[in-house]
Design a protein that fits this description.
By secondary structure, the protein is α/β, with parallel strands linked by helices. The chain has a domain of 166 residues: Rossmann fold (3-Layer(aba) Sandwich), CATH 3.40.50. It is built from ten helices and ten strands. The strands form two sheets. The chain has a six-stranded mixed β-sheet with strand order 6-7-8-3-9-10, with helices on both faces. The model has no long low-confidence stretch (mean pLDDT 90). The protein binds adenosine-5'-triphosphate. This is ATP-binding cassette domain-containing protein. InterPro entries: AAA+_ATPase, ABC_transporter-like_ATP-bd, ABC_transporter-like_CS, Metal_Ion_Import_ABC, P-loop_NTPase.
């Protein structure tokens, strides 16, 4: 069987005011790839991720999943293939962690009053994987920012989609949980033969997690390569418009 492939062909996107946000984006990634999308604030990363995830439609160009145009894939199949973690997500009141996870399926009812030990096995596993099992019955609005992000990640991990789009998944995480997320992404991509796209502003996190790096600048793809090549070339200065001293903070030992 041939490898799972995700491809973007000549993607352009302009706003209703005819402001062109993305220009001629092309890439192709294969199962097992973890791609980190870098770029300055406003470069167009979230917009590109939303187009790839089928949340927004490109103004021009095609998104292909195994040569099938995303426009021709029904919404149900799309939701089985693709999971998207938005940069921020509204927390519903009167909803606890288990109830949020159960939105993936109807197996657990809204009024369930169970102890952690009676949780479905996969629920406990996902919560344990993201170190949040002890908060299973907590209301979403009472969670800290990092705990809420870990609950969202646990829900995504349960869905086992073939392509994950994670928009700043590390944003609220402390160092320990960032490192845990690195391990979980690598394990997920391997085990599920999946492709993971990540946007992040944490260069250290990007360096740890990704085997491919691509970079956007003002809506144009300015880089797309193996991560090793990207890191060996010290091009952060150019990418982020840093001065030499700023860049030394990252590269100095
Ligand atoms: N519907 C829209 N109408 C007008 N402008 C938009 C629209 N959507 C996004 N933008 C603008 O497009 C640019 C790119 O936004 P986007 O959220 O994709 O950037 P980003 O690279 O993810 O930034 P950040 O790193 O700050 O999250 C921003 O300047 C944003 O204000």
């Amino acid at each position: 069987m041939s490898a799972f492939v995700f491809k973007a062909e000549k993607i352009f996107y302009s706003t209703p005011n005819h402001n062109i946000l993305l220009k001629d984006i092309n890439f192709e990634y294969n199962e097992g790839d973890i791609v980190c999308l870098l770029g300055n604030n406003g470069a167009g990363k979230s917009t590109l991720i939303k187009i790839c995830a089928g949340i927004l439609s490109a103004s021009f160009g095609n998104i292909l999943i195994n040569k099938n145009n995303i426009k021709c894939i029904g919404k149900t199949q799309q939701s089985q293939l693709i999971s998207w973690l938005p940069q921020s997500l509204y927390r519903a009141e009167n909803f606890n962690v288990i109830e949020f996870l159960s939105l993936n399926s109807l197996r657990v009812s809204k009024n369930m009053q169970k102890s952690n030990s009676e949780l479905p096995f996969d629920f406990s596993n996902a919560l344990r994987d993201f170190d949040i099992l002890d908060q299973a019955k907590k209301e979403l609005i009472l969670l800290s920012g990092g705990e809420w992000k870990r609950v969202q990640l646990a829900r995504l991990w349960l869905r086992k989609a073939k392509i994950l789009f994670l928009d700043e998944p590390d944003g609220d995480l402390d160092l320990k949980h960032k490192i845990n997320l690195v391990g979980k992404c690598k394990e997920y991509a391997q085990k599920n033969k999946a492709i993971i796209f990540i946007t992040s502003h944490d260069i250290h996190f990007a360096k740890m997690v990704a085997n491919k790096i691509c970079a956007l600048n003002n809506g144009i793809f300015v880089w797309n390569s193996e991560a090793d090549i990207f890191w060996s070339l010290n091009i952060l200065q150019k990418l982020y418009g840093l001065n030499k001293n700023d860049e030394n903070h990252f590269y100095s030992k």
